[in-house]
Input
Amino acid sequence: MTDHSEAIFDAIAAIAPDIRAALPGRRLAAGGENPSGEDQLAADVYADELLKEAIEAIDGVGIYVSEERTEAIDVGDGELSVAVDPLDGSSNLKSNNALGTIVGIYDEPLPASGRDLVAAGYVLYGPITTMIVAIGDTVTGYVVDDGDRTVSESDMELPSPPTIYSFGGRVPEWTDGFAAFADEIETELKLRYGGSMVGDVNQVLTYGGIFSYPALTTAPDGKLRLQFEANPMAYIIEAAGGASSDGVRSLLDREPDGVHDRTPVHLGNAELIDRLEAALR
Ligand code: AHM
Ligand code: MG
Output
């Protein structure tokens, strides 16, 4: 299982430069024509095509699904299901802020519980391309260069004491409980919000703190998707010694109904997640 997971992350590192190289030309003309007059796929749809081709070529994979597809598809006869957010934070392309690719590897058909994850990882297209991979309890950081990944940090742990917070959603749409928690946190930590989950969670992993995209009064299940975004990031943060929550329980214990389910998301140092859950009770 670990070998298959490593092969999947090798394949993702190998195509990360292609995904990155496709961004400039798709920045302003998403869905339009390229200079040769050919129809151009939006950056996130193009990234999905590249990832599907790379992942279906790997032994051990049976199912592929992404945020860009309505349904999971059979891509082989392996036991693993790979769920991908091909280009997370794609609205950041316009303003040239961080973007990422998120990957969850489950050993059950989808939709699956976060407890069925065997590995998870993400690529961050920042000033440099980096990759974080969690397999079991081990979290490893890489720099991706020319399609190869080189270890930059082993056995990553969330730093303590935490220093930053990153809360999404319009403040007037926060629930009273979350707004009260935010009032406390604002006096203790520094705000750093970039509008891409990968970039924002990577800041939490780097500095310690908390990322939330909470339940909103207008969207009780929040914005982020359980299979592609919440579960993989929760798996990584928990493996790094942190905690995750949907407001009540670990995200990994949230029962899925459908592949595109949304969920409130809270990720960070365990003491902050404990306090958040207490504030929402
Ligand atoms: P996307 O998958 O359509 O890009 O949406 C998910 C993104 C996350 O990366 C980020 O945390 C959130 O949406 C930001 O939303 P907002 O623009 O409301 O701050
Ligand atoms: Mg996303």
Summary: Residues 67, 85, 88-90, 168, 195-197, 213, 223 surround AHM (ligand 1) (CB under 6 Å). The chain has a mean pLDDT of 95. The chain has eight helices and 13 strands.
